[in-house]
Design brief:
mainly alpha; Cyclin A, domain 1; 20 helices; Rab-GAP-TBC_dom
Length: 369
């Protein structure tokens, strides 16, 4: 009854083939077989033949099925719908179609006006000034020109300042990079997969405002998934907990990376956890990585996925280093390795992270108790 009352949206008209049986069989197979089968399919555009089935489950709000179908990749054409559904768990299908909740949208913009978010009247924190600096130096790799336009800079600035107002101890440098990825995913949906400055200029003011309010909702959801105490008196940055889980996982794996001095290892990987890889890879690869985190059907999938991908990545990096204790050699490789990584290597690492998730992560949970 609900579907008949709701107006049709974009994903009602996407056709695709049924792949549920294939996905089910993949879950039952070995992780090695999964990696070998899908290694050439991990890319930004994704498999468009999956769109029909994904939209079928989105229409039913069957989020478990959506996760299962999407856990090895999300087609670009429906990515925003899937992220919206899995991060926000909306109560109506129409909300997914609109990529917006009217109540939250109005509340956000009422708060922007009431709290004078565009001014410094109620933002006395030093972080408010830091945000302004961070916005001007937001350069997502491959799409750096997008945030040189005032339209997206203003969106980014308001979202970060709203977060600071609601959570006075919640802001940290690097959050701008995380939010820029969210904005790009939503803009990609509203422009129908066109990501050039001229396409953003063509967006209506109403669409831009909905992108902004939904970006803020995504940010709050991610903070929850990362288990950050954004309501605390002291700053509680998510990277600290992720780093601890990462080091524990490497110990369980008996990883070669542990031959590196621990401080050196932390220095090489700290930014991964602060920015969720958004400064390491081109935007399209970052989004594909996040696809895995968002759609992981297991508990704490987003947080644990970050740790497992980091373990797979450091494992691959150290395999190319002759002397793992030579900080200059490691620094030189790490500075360019991710940015210059070819698609096959990227896919292999991404699939290796699934193996780690299955083979080792239960052990780390056991050791933590």
């Amino acid at each position: 009854m609900e579907q008949k009352q709701e107006k049709k949206g974009i994903f009602d008209f996407i056709s695709g083939t049924n792949v549920s049986n294939v996905i089910s069989s993949l879950f039952k197979g070995t992780t090695t077989a999964v990696s070998n089968l899908l290694i050439d399919k991990v890319d930004f555009e994704g498999d468009y033949s999956m769109c029909g089935e994904i939209c079928q489950y989105l229409n039913k709000r069957d989020y478990l099925k959506v996760r299962q179908v999407c856990c090895f990749g999300i087609p670009r054409k429906v990515r925003g719908f899937v992220w919206y559904a899995l991060l926000l768990r909306p109560k109506t299908t129409q909300e997914i179609r609109d990529l917006s909740n009217n109540e939250n949208h109005l509340l956000y913009w009422n708060n922007v006006n009431e709290f004078h978010i565009d001014s410094d009247e109620f933002l006395y924190s030093e972080d408010a000034e830091v945000i302004d600096w961070d916005v001007t130096r937001t350069y997502p790799i491959g799409y750096d020109s997008l945030f040189q336009s005032d339209r997206l800079r203003n969106v980014l600035r308001r979202v970060l300042r709203m977060f600071l107002y609601i959570h006075p101890k919640g802001y940290f440098q690097g959050l701008n990079d995380i939010v820029s990825i969210i904005i790009i995913v939503l803009v990609d949906m509203f422009t129908k997969q066109k990501l050039k400055v001229e396409d953003i200029i063509q967006l209506s003011l109403e669409d831009l405002k909905r992108i902004e309010s939904t970006t803020y909702s995504f940010l709050e959801a991610l903070s929850s998934l990362l288990a950050v105490n954004i309501y605390g008196i002291e700053k509680d940055i998510h990277a600290i907990g992720l780093m601890n889980d990462f080091l524990n996982l490497l110990k369980v794996m008996n990883s070669k990376a542990l031959q590196m001095d621990e401080q050196m290892l932390k220095q090489q990987t700290w930014r991964w956890f602060v920015c969720l890889f958004s400064r390491e890879f081109p935007v399209e690869k970052v989004i594909v990585i996040w696809d895995r985190f968002v759609s992981d059907p297991r508990g704490k999938g987003f947080r644990n996925g970050i740790v497992c991908f980091a373990a797979a990545l450091i494992e691959d990096i150290v395999s190319h280093v002759v002397d793992i204790r030579n900080i200059e050699e490691v620094n030189k490789l790490n500075r360019t390795y991710c940015k210059e990584m070819d698609d096959m290597t990227f896919s292999r690492i991404l699939n290796r992270s699934i193996d780690i998730r299955v083979d080792y992560f239960q052990k780390i949970l056991y050791h933590s108790y």
